[in-house]
Amino acid sequence: MTSTRKTLRGLALAAALAITLAGCSSQGGAQEEAGGGGGGTGGSVDTERYAIAMVTHEAPGDTFWDKIRAGAEDAAQALNVELRYANSPEAPEQATLVQNAVDTRVDGLAVTLAYADAVGPSLQAAEGAGIPVVAFNSGIEQYEQYGAMMYFGSDETLAGRTAGERIAENGGTKTICIVQEQGSVALAARCDGVAAGSGNSEVLNVDGEDLPSVRATIGAKLQQDPSITHIVTLGAPIALAALEAKGDTGSQAQVVTFDLNAEVAQRIQDGDITFSIDQQPYVQGYMAVQSLWMYLTNGNDIGGGGPVLTGPSFVDETNIARILPNAHNNTR
């Protein structure tokens, strides 16, 4: 590792995107908003105003989505876009929200494909209506199958494998990989990668919307199996629950996590979390909106037929001093 956070695979796009580091907070739960946030205040470009829908699998209380929405809101404001954000952690409800966006004849659609089998077919209605679609955050292996033109996100299999290899190099012999949303293709890919890289990893399913239950489930597993050397969590709130479970049981297992928030960044600096694997969610939200605007205004296609990668990258003791002051950025 170098002293800077090093992206394992770079973005396919470099200078085309000028990203403003600001944002706005999200609200959890199934919801739908018209003209939300910055998109409702008008933009800084003198172009036709487009309506772009963003439909995600955001779950209540997950601060990760604050950064996704911050990027989307900032892009909407900069580009004179009316952003219509909707979310549900339930696959059938998310598919319905996609259909609702199609029925209202939006100009573009950005969708997460965590539950690709359930939500992906609903994108065919958008294609039939002539509405351009991009996927982001989840569904890197499935987006082309369902007609999405572009994809913005991390290579989750690569991220998981690299994390597993690093665990093995550091002497890890038994890992548990905590899945907080069963059925999510991105989370499954992460755990599959961890298993491939570490050689000995077991999946533990938890209810990510009930953090006390997450703490109790992880704690019970640690008590049952004291040979566990590493706990891999797939979201920042789950990492904090894992730390509590570790304290409850006196386990010496190291905690590794995917994704980053301000508290996780602080715990990395304090030495409580060994490292995090970041995917730059703000960039994903921003690029999803901007790519649709560029396609609608000028016919641009970003990525050259492949996914545009926003990660993965490590955050650890070697670079946390530089990253920590910015941990509160990308949301407001």
Question: Strands, helices and their partners?
Answer:
Layout: E1 31-32, E2 50-56, H1 64-79, E3 81-87, H2 91-103, E4 108-111, H3 116-119, H4 123-128, E5 133-136, E6 150-154, H5 156-169, E7 175-179, H6 185-198, E8 201-205, H7 211-224, E9 230-233, H8 236-249, E10 254-258, H9 262-270, E11 273-278, H10 281-298, E12 308-311, E13 313-315, H11 320-323
Parallel strand pairs: 2-3, 2-4, 4-5, 5-6, 6-12, 7-8, 7-9, 9-10, 10-11
Antiparallel strand pairs: 1-3, 11-13
Helix pairs in contact: 1-10, 5-6, 7-8
List keywords for this structure.
2 domains, Rossmann fold, seven-stranded mixed beta sheet, alpha/beta, 11 helices, single chain, disordered N terminus, about 325 residues
Characterise this structure.
Strand 10 (254-258), helix 9 and strand 11 form a beta-alpha-beta unit. The chain has helices at 64-79, 91-103, 116-119, 123-128, 156-169, 185-198, 211-224, 236-249, 262-270, 281-298, 320-323, and strands spanning 31-32, 50-56, 81-87, 108-111, 133-136, 150-154, 175-179, 201-205, 230-233, 254-258, 273-278, 308-311, 313-315. It is elongated, with a radius of gyration of 19 Å. A seven-stranded mixed sheet has the order 1-3-2-4-5-6-12, with helices on both faces. The protein has eleven helices and 13 strands. The two termini are 31 Å apart. It has 332 residues and is of the alpha/beta class.
